[in-house]
């Protein structure tokens, strides 16, 4: 049974936050093709973004553009079930505040509480970042916000990201990691827990994160991990 079926049976809906970057593109294309496309009850699925670059939605670096091309436009999901980061705001902090309100309103959240997504799909950068939570960022100490603006010297665009507490409150976390260039960081993520490797901080109270990793990215991991 798809994870989505479990939550739709339980709650009548499945809430998922999806990451950008290149790795998940193949997964999104698979979900948009048979047999998955018609097996997932998209009308009961609500899709949010884990993070977004602060660029127009038709910009080549837009995570939403890629998500729409690879998945959204091919699955007949109702428009009201798609909850993208509002990048049309004047500044990235404005967009983060608006996105936080969108999430608060959807989950009917009392002040000071965090949404519990049924699933959050994450990637991991070579520097250990996940979502747009970069190493040694002040955001790693932010225990108040649901969404925040992020910048990083290695990346051109300002970004909007779900916060660390939101990732840690998720019912289920899945990491999707591929390629030999991730092997070194994966060894650190699995064996260390510190702010210089944000991905290693994602421990949810509910479930241990699920790691989907290919052989190249796992080549330095001991088999007994
Ligand atoms: C983004 C992603 C980011 C990504 C990692 C890994 O907006 O770029 O959300 O956190 O998951 O950078 O990216 P790749 O999958 O492209 O290696």
Description:
With 225 residues, the protein is of the alpha/beta class. The model has no long low-confidence stretch (mean pLDDT 94). The longest helix has 16 residues, at 92-107. Helices cover 27% and strands 16% of the residues. It has a six-stranded parallel beta sheet. The protein is globular and about 40 Å long. Strand 6 (147-150) and strand 7 (159-162) form a beta hairpin. The structure holds 6-phosphogluconic acid (6PG).
Q: Topology, please?
A:
Elements: H1 3-11, E1 14-18, H2 24-31, H3 36-39, E2 45-49, E3 51-53, H4 63-70, E4 82-83, H5 92-107, E5 119-122, E6 147-150, E7 159-162, H6 164-169, E8 173-177, H7 183-191, E9 210-213
Parallel strand pairs: 1-2, 1-5, 2-4, 5-8, 8-9
Antiparallel strand pairs: 3-7, 6-7
Helix vs. strand class: alpha/beta
First-last Cα distance: 26 Å
- Average pLDDT confidence is 94
**Spatial sequence of strands, sheet with the most strands:** 4-2-1-5-8-9
Shape: globular
Low-pLDDT segments: none
Write the H/E string, N to C. Answer: HEHHEEHEHEEEHEHE
Q: Taking Cα atoms only, what radius of gyration do you get, to the nearest Å?
A: 17 Å
Main sheet summary: 6 strands, parallel
Percent of residues in β-strands? 15-25%
How would you describe this structure in keywords?
alpha/beta, binds 6-phosphogluconic acid, 225 residues, six-stranded parallel beta sheet, 7 helices, three-stranded antiparallel beta sheet, 9 strands
């Amino acid at each position: 049974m798809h994870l989505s079926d479990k939550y739709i049976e339980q709650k009548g809906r499945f809430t998922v936050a999806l990451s950008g970057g290149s790795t998940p593109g193949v997964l999104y294309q698979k979900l948009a093709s048979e047999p998955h496309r018609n097996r997932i009850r998209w009308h009961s699925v609500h899709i949010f973004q884990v993070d977004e670059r602060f660029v127009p939605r038709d910009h080549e670096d837009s995570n939403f553009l890629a998500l729409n091309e690879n998945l959204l436009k091919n699955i007949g999901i109702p428009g009201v079930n798609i909850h993208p980061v509002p990048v049309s705001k004047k500044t990235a902090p404005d967009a983060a505040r608006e996105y936080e309100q969108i999430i608060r309103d959807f989950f009917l959240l009392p002040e000071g509480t965090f949404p519990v997504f049924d699933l959050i799909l994450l990637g991991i950068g070579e520097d250990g970042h996940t979502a747009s939570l970069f190493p040694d960022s002040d955001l790693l100490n932010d225990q108040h916000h649901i969404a925040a603006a992020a910048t990083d010297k290695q990346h051109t665009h300002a970004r909007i990201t779900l916060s660390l507490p939101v990732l840690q409150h998720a019912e289920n976390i899945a990491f999707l990691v591929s390629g030999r260039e991730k092997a070194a960081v994966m060894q650190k993520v699995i064996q260390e827990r510190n702010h210089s490797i944000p991905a290693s901080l994602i421990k949810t109270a509910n479930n241990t994160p699920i790691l989907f990793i290919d052989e190249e990215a796992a080549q330095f991991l001991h088999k007994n991990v």
